[in-house]
Structures are given as C-alpha cells and as structure tokens.
Amino acid sequence: MRPRSTSRHGVTRLATASLAALGVVALSACGARVDSGSAAPTTAESCVDTSGDTVKIGFLNSLSGTMAISEQTVHDSLQLAAEEINADGGVLGKQLDVVSEDGQSEPTVFAEKAGKLITSDCVAAVFGGWTSASRKAMLPVFESQDSLLFYPVQYEGLESSPNIFYTGATTNQQIVPALDYLAEQGVTSLFLVGSDYVFPRTANKIINAYAQAHGIEIVGEEYAPLGHTDFSTIVNKVRSADADAVFNTLNGDSNVAFFKEYNNAGLSADEMPVVSVSIAEEEVGGIGVKNIEGQLTAWNYYQTVDSPENDAFVEAFKAAYGQDRPTSDPMEAAYTSLHLWAAMVEKAGSFAVDDVVAAADGVTYDAPEGHVVVNGENHHIAKTSLVGEIGADGLIHTVWSSEQPIEPDPYLEGYDWAEGLS
Amino acid sequence: MDIIAQLFAGLSLGSVLLLAALGLSLTFGQMGVINMAHGEFMMAGAYTAFVVQGVVGDAGVSLLLALPLGFVVGGLLGLLLEATLIHRMYRRPLDTLLVTWGVALVLQQVARDVFGAPNVDVRAPAWLSGAVEIGGLALPRTRLFILALAAVCVVALALALRATPLGRRIRAVVQNRDLAEASGISSRATDRVTFFIGSGLAGIAGVALTLLGSIGPTLGTNYIVDAFLVVVAGGIGQIKGTVIAATALGLMQAFLEYSTTASVAKVLVFVAIVAFLQLRPQGLVSVRTRSLA
C-alpha cells in the first residue's frame, strides 16, 4: 500500500475540510473587521515635519492581491501627479516626498497601513483606497488621528467624513444622470443586474426609488455572487423580461462572463443596451471589444475627453508608463485629488489639517475631466457627468454630457424621490 | 418554454463543471492526490488559447489548434509537478495539499508577470457566435460546442480506461496497487501517465472556458472549488459518478437560481451537498475493492 496511506473516505474528508477552509478564507477576506479604535488615541498631536524643504505624503493602494489590477493604475497616476508638482516647484516651495504602502486588497491592512503612514511616517495627507470596504476601514483611523484621506473612486454615497475628500463621483453625479439620460431616451422599463455586495445593492435602491418617481418599471433585479462565472440563468431572465435597457453594477471578472453570455444569447446593444458603472477603459480589453462594443457606461471622465488639460494628461501618462496604457476615470480622479490637495495647501498657506480643511471650500482645478470645484461642506467635488458608448477602438466616446459640473449631494437631499433612502 | 431554457442552462453548466472536474476525477479520484494547482492548469490552457490565437490569427483555426495544444501544455505541467514534487508525497496528502496550493500561487504570479495583470481576450470564432434559435429558444452556440466537447472528452476517457492496455493498467493500479505491481505493472509509470492525462484534461477545459468567461491569472480559482465538489459528490474513483454529479449540480444550480437568486442557489447547492455527504460519505458511486485501505 505504498502510495495510499489515507483511506478513500479519509481523502474525501480531507478534501471537504480544505474546501471549507478555503471558504472561510474567502469569507473572512470579505467580512474583515477593523478594530481601529483601540489602536488610536482619541486626540492626536500631528507629527508632520514641515521644517525642511520637503514634505511627506502617503500613497496607499493595493499593489498585491485581487485589487492590484485596478489600484496599480491609480498608484501610477498619483506618482505622475507628484512628479509634475515637484517639477513645478512643489507645494509651498517644498518638494513632495512620497511614502508608498501596499494595502494588499485587505481592509484591515488598509487601516493598519493608514495608521502607520500617519503616526510613524508623519505624512501630511494620504491618497488611495478603492473598495468601499477599504474606505470604511480607514475612516475611523483618519478621524481619530485627525488626518486627511483623498479617496479617488466613485462610490455608493451616503457618507461624508470631515477627514476624507471624495474626488470620485457620488451617486447623484453618476447613477442619477445615467438614469436621466435613459429616461430622456424613452426607456420605460429597466432590468437591474449587479454583484451581491454593498455598492450594487445601495445603487439599486436608489434606482428603484428613481424609477418609481419617474414612471420607469423595474422588470427584474438580479444579484450574482462576486466572482460568479455562469450567467446563463440571469441572461435567460433578462431575455424573457424584455426590458428597454439593462443597468449593470457587476464588478470584476463577472462582467466578462456576463457580456459573453449576453452576446451569445443573441442580445445586443441595439435592442437592449446595457449601461455599466464599473467598466472603464482598463476593463474593455479584457472583456473583448467585440463583446461590448456599442454598450453604454456612465462616468465623469473618458480618455477621449477633448480638452488641452486631458491631452497633456494622456500624453504625460503614456510617456511615463507606455503607449498601450489607457487612462480611466479613477486614475484621473486620483491625479486630480493630488492637485486639489496642493491647491488647498497653497490657499491655506499651511500643511496643518485644520487649515487645509478650512481653506478647502471653493478650491478649483482645471482637471483632465474639466473644471472641478471642492464643496467644503460635504468634501466631495462638483463634476461633470458623462454617458459614453464603447467604440470599436476599445475607447469610450461621450454621447451625452451634463454640460455643467453637478454639485455633489451624497445623501441625495436635493431629490424628493430619494426621501427615506438614507 | 422557460423550463426548457433552464434545462439547457443547467445541462450547459453541468458540462462546464464536468470539463473542469473530469481531469480531477483522474488525479484526485483515481490517484488520491489533492492537487490544488488543477485550476492553474486550466488557466495555462486558457493562456495557451490566447497565445495560439496571437500566432495563428484566425479564431476558428486557433481554437481547434488550441484544444490539443492545451491538453499537451496542461499535461506537461502536470507531469513536471508530479515528477518533481507530488511523487515524493504520495503518503502525505496534507503536505500535498499545501505544496500544490503554493504551486498554484506561483503559477498565478508567473502568469501575471508574463501576460500582465489585466484580463486578456480570446475571440470566439464566427461559427460559434450567436445562438441557435429553436421556437423562441436561444441556445448559444458556444454552449452547444462545450456540451459536445464535454461529451467527447468523457467518451474518449471512458474508452481509454476501458478498452486500452493503458486503461487496464490504470484501473489495476487504482483497485489494488500491490497486486498490480506484483503482476508486473510499473505503478510509477502508470501514475505519471494518469497524471499527464488528468492535467491535460484541465488544459482542454481551460481552452473551452475562454469561450465563456474571463481569461486572467485567477481563472482557475473560480472553478477549483466547484470541481472538487463535483468529484467528491460523485464519489471518487469513478467517472460515471463525476458525470452524474456534474449534471445534477448544474441542473440544481440552474433551477434554484431561476426560482431564487444566484447567491441563494449557491448556498442551497452547498447545503444539499453537505447533507448528501452526511448520508453517503463515499459519494454517489464508489469503487468496491478488496484492498484494506
């Protein structure tokens, strides 16, 4: 019996146990809890050193793990912004000294590394985070240490921390305008497809409220677990519901499987367009241009935005990181966040958090996406909303624009139909 | 009509599960090796399809070329793994699990370094795009193709095990290794060939999956748990059990998902498997042998 020391049942049990263990690892990764309160003293004395001719800032992105694929791009554009600012003479005459930390796609690590950047590296501000889970984990750290975080990704809204600046879109700058566009196009029924976690569920709550107030019928609402790879049933449901359009809040690899299935089932952008809020230029290549050509996206920036600021940004990015690298909304929001912080500091004449926050209101920057204005009250920024169509070239081309920057309204207080959502 | 559409969806999902699990039913089921890198052999197959398409260009020709090449690539990786690591650990299943898990992580990182972190795209040939319409029912051609491919693989494997000298040797070693060795069969050589075929089937599955899902370094991790579930539920050591379990799980997932949601269906399927294994720990079909193990 040389090779088999375990009985068949033993092997089965072992395999079952390891599968269970895998499941636990996966679950704990999602539901990681953060115990930041105990680590942080309630009032913090800032240790930021501004006496020399440099000042430290922190970049906190996932450079490893599942999110690395997205967050690396944000890290690259932050790096580009820092180099530009330094070449321009720095901030208040001081060169930026960047300290990079790896969030490892793990909310607890984000919280821990944020604490390290603030208390041990003594950075003046931190830039980064991607998933809402990572932001929620870092929030108490920044609040208790009274430090600053610049968060560059569109998110589900319903948050406004005095210690965070949100430079991505909140819901009234991305989802609501996309719905306005669909209503304008005569869409009267929608099918909602999303991944099963906080962002899609919150987004769909908002969409349901909007639909009810605007006479749009929601004919179906389906959620797939993150990493779901078989969409035949969901596409069957979409097919038989026969809506005017599909609103897609799927995240990650699921999008590839969904769009391949969608095409193979004979559905197309002509008869039932899909509007996505998580697919940017980076993802189009992996899904396959052929599978997604003609479908719609909602963002605040596309690589194709026609402005001198964007031309300069795209050219500088490609020169630094390669001609084949596209630029996308979160990258642009991150790039803009560093320039906004620099402008706030210049206006305040100080690196101190209280001074910067006090000076923040009304700070503007001519970003690649267009003119943006910081709202001092809720710490979001006014952004122009764009609906784009994915072209055969793999880039996204604007088909509709809000023309004017939309004031951020994270709690949707200015919308009657949204009452009771927050 | 919805019931028929779901029936097809279930069979199709079953065929995907079957392709992913078929190789595992050889390496895990027949040899008792818990190979956590099986998913990465699928990933290697998928990247083989990507490379072949880059070289050949035409999507149809490249798919047909990639299937045998994916088999060879997956098989060679398996052979390498068996010859360098696994054969030293036949007595230590827990160590095998950890080592192959490590190998899986290494292979993922290699893929990330060679092909880049973002997903890549493999175009489906024109003759596989769109759906066959039968009375208001749309059967995607890619899914019909995978259904047929799974059937071909099962039949080929069953024939190979049943009707060839090699198959007889494999079965002999599985049923009673000592007796097989005493009869002059080299169990070492048989192990290698079995592992080659099992891993090669993972490569084929990887090529087929490029038609349905994303092609990235973590492709394998999406399927490995399901593949093990199928083999365990089917009863290790029997291809028949794997086929039945894959079909049953596919149909169950499809119909539960239709009447509830994808997340709930997944939970219910897991609960059903746990309950089933309580009643029948040996799985659906088990091999009766006279060995003491």
TrEMBL record, chain A:
<dbReference type="InterPro" id="IPR028082">
    <property type="entry name" value="Peripla_BP_I"/>
</dbReference>
<dbReference type="InterPro" id="IPR017777">
    <property type="entry name" value="ABC_urea-bd_UrtA"/>
</dbReference>
<feature type="signal peptide">
    <location>
        <begin position="1"/>
        <end position="31"/>
    </location>
</feature>
<dbReference type="Pfam" id="PF13433">
    <property type="entry name" value="Peripla_BP_5"/>
</dbReference>
<protein>
    <submittedName>
        <fullName>Urea ABC transporter substrate-binding protein</fullName>
    </submittedName>
</protein>
<dbReference type="InterPro" id="IPR000709">
    <property type="entry name" value="Leu_Ile_Val-bd"/>
</dbReference>
<keyword id="KW-0732">Signal</keyword>
UniProtKB/TrEMBL annotation, chain B:
<dbReference type="InterPro" id="IPR052157">
    <property type="entry name" value="BCAA_transport_permease"/>
</dbReference>
<keyword id="KW-0029">Amino-acid transport</keyword>
<keyword id="KW-0813">Transport</keyword>
<feature type="transmembrane region" description="Helical">
    <location>
        <begin position="193"/>
        <end position="215"/>
    </location>
</feature>
<feature type="transmembrane region" description="Helical">
    <location>
        <begin position="263"/>
        <end position="279"/>
    </location>
</feature>
<feature type="transmembrane region" description="Helical">
    <location>
        <begin position="144"/>
        <end position="161"/>
    </location>
</feature>
<comment type="similarity">
    <text>Belongs to the binding-protein-dependent transport system permease family. LivHM subfamily.</text>
</comment>
<feature type="transmembrane region" description="Helical">
    <location>
        <begin position="63"/>
        <end position="81"/>
    </location>
</feature>
<keyword id="KW-1003">Cell membrane</keyword>
<keyword id="KW-0812">Transmembrane</keyword>
<feature type="transmembrane region" description="Helical">
    <location>
        <begin position="227"/>
        <end position="251"/>
    </location>
</feature>
<dbReference type="InterPro" id="IPR017779">
    <property type="entry name" value="ABC_UrtB_bac"/>
</dbReference>
<keyword id="KW-1133">Transmembrane helix</keyword>
<protein>
    <submittedName>
        <fullName>Urea ABC transporter permease subunit UrtB</fullName>
    </submittedName>
</protein>
<dbReference type="InterPro" id="IPR001851">
    <property type="entry name" value="ABC_transp_permease"/>
</dbReference>
<keyword id="KW-0472">Membrane</keyword>
<dbReference type="Pfam" id="PF02653">
    <property type="entry name" value="BPD_transp_2"/>
</dbReference>
